[in-house]
Amino acid sequence: MGNLIKRALEHSVNRRTFLGWSAAAVATATVALSGPESGLVKVGSKAEAADAASEGKWISAACWHNCGGRCLNKALVKEGVVIRQKTDDTHPDSPDFPQHRGCARGRSQRQQVLGADRLKYPMKRKNWAPGGGKKELRGKDEWVRISWDEALDIVAGEIKKAQAAGGPKAILAGRLDSRLLNAMGGALTTWGVTSEGAWPQVEAKMYGSYPLQCSDRFDWRNAKLLVIWGANPAWSSAGNPIYNYLQVKKAGAKVIVVDPYYSATAQALADEWIPVRPGTDAALLIGMAYHMIKNNLQDQAFLDKYCVGFDADHMPKGADPKESFRDYVLGTYDGVPKTPEWASNICGTDPMVIRHFANELATTKPAIMNSSAAPARTYRGQQYCQAYLTVGFMTGNVGVSGGGVFMSYHSRQSYSSISMVNGGSSGVPALPNPLHPYETYTFSKPEKTDWYSMAYEETYDAILKGEFTLGQRGKTKCDIKMIYSLRTDSGGNFLNQSSGTNKGIEAMRKVDFIVTSDIVLSTVSKYADVVLPECSQWEKAGALRTGNPEAVFYQEQIIEPLYECKEGIWMERELAKRLGVDPEKVHPLPIKQQFFNQIASAKVVKPDNTGMESLVTITDADIAEWKVAGKPQQGRITLKEFREKGAYQVPRAAGDKLVNIAYKAFRDDPEKNKLATTSGKLEIHCKALSDVIHAYGFTECPPIAMYQAPVEGFEDTFKDFKAGVKGEYPLQMFTFHYPRRSHSVFDNVRQLREAFPQEFNMNPADAAARGLTEGETVLITSKWGKAIRPLHLTERMTPGVVTMGEGAWVDKDDETGIDKAGATNSLSGTRLSGQGEQPWNTCIVQVGKWTGAPLTPDYLWKQRIVF
Amino acid sequence: MAQKGFYFDQTVCIGCKTCQISCKDKNNVAPGVLFRTVHTFEGGKFPKPWAYFISIGCNHCENPRCVQNCPTGAMHKRAEDGLVVVDQDVCIGCKYCTWSCPYSAPQYLEEKGVVGKCDGCVDLTAKGGNPTCVDSCIMRVLEFGDLAELKKKHPGVQVVEGMPDPSLTGPSIIIKAKPEARK
Amino acid sequence: METKEWALILFTVISQAAVGAFLLITWFRTVNKDAAMDAAYKKANLVLLPLAAIALITTLFHLGHPERALNALRNLSTSWLSREIFFAGGFFVMLLVSVLTEKTVAVRKIVDWLTVLAGICAVVSMAAVYDLSMKPAWQGFHTYVAFVVTALFLGAALAAGLVVLFGKDHAQVAPNLQVLIWVAAAAVVAELIAFPFYLASLQMGGKAAQATLAMLAGQYGTALIARWALALVGGLVPLMFVRRQLSAGKTATGLVYTALLFVLAGELVGRYLFYMTGVKIMIG
What is the pTM of this model? Predict the structure, then answer.
């Protein structure tokens, strides 16, 4: 067996020999394949032609990532071997009823699941000992294969020890909720927005709804102007959003893209590209507002009727009339008129372009503005959100057909915010964390006093300094002994994905014990003590997944668990037994039952839009076949059809009854349909926002949109901003979602590395000033770390701004401190701002010559194969 | 014979490389081997830059130099649809075809010791389907079919800036070109 | 860029040398009247025969499937590569027949000239193979010139080596050497004249041709200088000394061998350059 696996990993094998082994393999340990050698269908030779002709079975396969899309992915399984993949072909494709086609990552799913670098056995760090052992070796120690019993005994023992020392507060479970620890009194968790930046509280307080309402995609086609602000759906919302945008353009809308980089989206759709420096979008917007006000282009009637805080005559109750947005823009009291020239000095956009853009936006009706979260992933990110909404309100494009002031990103971008079909509930009862009985991602109750948890950005300092912030209650002491990170999927790689990886490594080397579960040796697992091999979604019973509001996907088991991989549920149940906790309380339902429950409770909108009805018809025979508990029911499609298609997509056509226009009710009758804001109106002046940001205890937020220089923003690239003298880190770096991976997931897949090299992008003028040339390896430094990467020079970059895709797998040399993989968090610092958002896009760096050996393309690098 | 070919709408290609990757999955080829490649071109000057992509597999040329040059006849042009395919049972792995194609369509497969290439997914197209790349495209910018019909349906060009002179081999491709890419 | 073209370097250089040497020796043999010299030519051919065989065998190392090598003969109708293998194989077979028919002189003489013909066809086919690639560096007149020059320059040097090795009588050897030295010199001069035209054609060519030119001027500049130094200083100059010695009535055997080694080295470096700087027309 061992030899066979070695052969499988090291060598090219054809499908026939592979079949030979899998027949011989025992049930729990099948053979993973190295890279692309996992079977072949190619009419190149007779043997392969014969292969192609023989029947296989297409099974709907999970593509489960936090990628900004949700698509149909199918695997061709022949004699138990996955031969290849395909995507949605369940119905003819049209712009009105488009197939859900997977992206380069989805099409590489087979390489990820069956990669040679899958973790195979439970393992521990060679120099780990109770108490931590040689903690400094974390990240570079050897791995020792251990049995499941030994692994679970170690983890259970360490949990007991940590809890004995400091109770539930001694264990950090991080972002991932642990039902096991919650059943034992909870664990330290982290809160704060990652993807959405500073948006949630601004949406909730200024607009009265989180998430914001968005109009149906068919109504987007009525827009005359589409402004895509800080979004690159071509890369960050792979799937249909960019295709939907194309239909908006084809229907006649002019498209303007605002971005520091002339993105893939911009080159495909934009009639105009407005470059802007990262972290300065608020200044650009305020400069535009100035032009609108000076030329009386704002929709004053709309502002008067539907908004508060625009001018002194329409202030919310109790607010100082001097705090109006109009007076701030005009500089009535601070003496600084926020002219396009003022803005240009900060955001870099030409003043004439600012005026022209403001004109275009104010006078083209109806217009849709859609923002992503990227500009809000900055220090004091909420100032962008405030300015964006304010300028949007000034155009009056709220609640009208073809208009919108939207923030929609990820898989719902370009779609309605109302789900037309959903995946139902797994039926697992909630088991909240007693230390933090609230949402974590968008923690909205900082003023409460019954929570004990930290901002995501404060995690490493909490470990290293032994204290963290409890809102207005101030700092609290803590002593974190253990990090527990059992991951249900392949996300949760916080060490790679949270700001300040270098500080994170230091923190990881301080605690006594770290356990993770993983499908590959991702960065967080690389620095752990015990790593448990987790089943991928292809090895689990199945699940329903939703993304955009029009489809739900059925994803079932494709292969048996590889090697000794186990489900996270099994791991926690086994740990519970060792800890004297009832496993039935921790994880009462097997995945198959959860899957069935989701199917049974899935709902779909009625064709006349009068409510929801059951999606799936379930018979007694189905229940018997599934061996689950359930009741028969009548639905729109049979379980068999759902399973065979692998998806249900709500039938759509132009002019159908499912078109909704966001905030139309409010627009039609603002008295009857008040918004859930303090005033019931759109709040340009919003005290509630100021108050809630204050309550988090990090930074202050004025009630109106103002521009205040962010830490590590444009101004900080100067030693003396007024004199124009540049400082030690004169370049602004922002990060983008790269189609090579979904955050850090897939970064190990070689064919994706080959397709998307991890390049460092820079304008040729900035390179010339440093004597740097295309393709050479450069050294990038920041206050927080160093990285080396090949340089790509492009006029698509705003001068003074540089960028790199986020999510590369940290590959740090302890001696030099250099990360040769080019993970952006090796260069970012941890910053506490606003509602605990991660300010990735305010980061300043320097770039220079690299005198060491040049880097080889990383698709040729050795894979992280442990055993 | 109805010559088959590809149509590529460059104007809205987003360079997502799904075609390139789905082709790799379909053909099961190792890193370093690409039967379809998405090439990126950039230029202009900030703040007026431009960028465009070219997605290219085999163009199943009218005068395929790879076929002419192949010493074994393994590389051949099918009479029924003009697709250029390689018989890997006959190929000796001399790589001469890889020197003969200006589009780098034939690719040497180190592990098999023979050449492989885009065959228009004959196993799928013979049954009336599309090649994998076409059906994978997020922006629906690729089409496959009878070249004459594609030409009728889409006005386009055989070459854009960055591509070899089409008179060399007579590629069966129609491209809707971006302004910056027009020769 | 192909990096492992050593099999092709050896094949083309060795087979071209064998063809050139055989051509020259066959010419000498045709006009020769001396029995002892005829025996020397016979021995020389016995050396050329295995060289031709080795050349053919090296091609196998270039193939992904050497066991299918004979498939290479299946497309004689359009493929110059098929023709190259056909004629190179033909050259070897005819040479073998020539050796086997030593005793029936009349037959052998016909066979010898047919062998020469096959050899010439092989060299021309080889050049055509590269001419029809999509690498501007290989297309056009220069590849034909370069391959013929190798055949004559290295062929003459090889023939000279064989003649002094097997020919015992200075009086008989000297006229052969005179001819060989003139042939070698003429070949080198032909290449010296052709080369600037080659560079000029690259200069006028497209991106791929420009890339070749940049490589010759850049990373392969040293190899280019070495190629010419070996040919001229290492090869031609000793041959000129040999010629001077001839008029003094001496056969400078050692210098002949030295020249052969340098000419061989020069041609190998030249062919290495040929392969390494061939840049294909492609997208980009």
Answer: 0.94
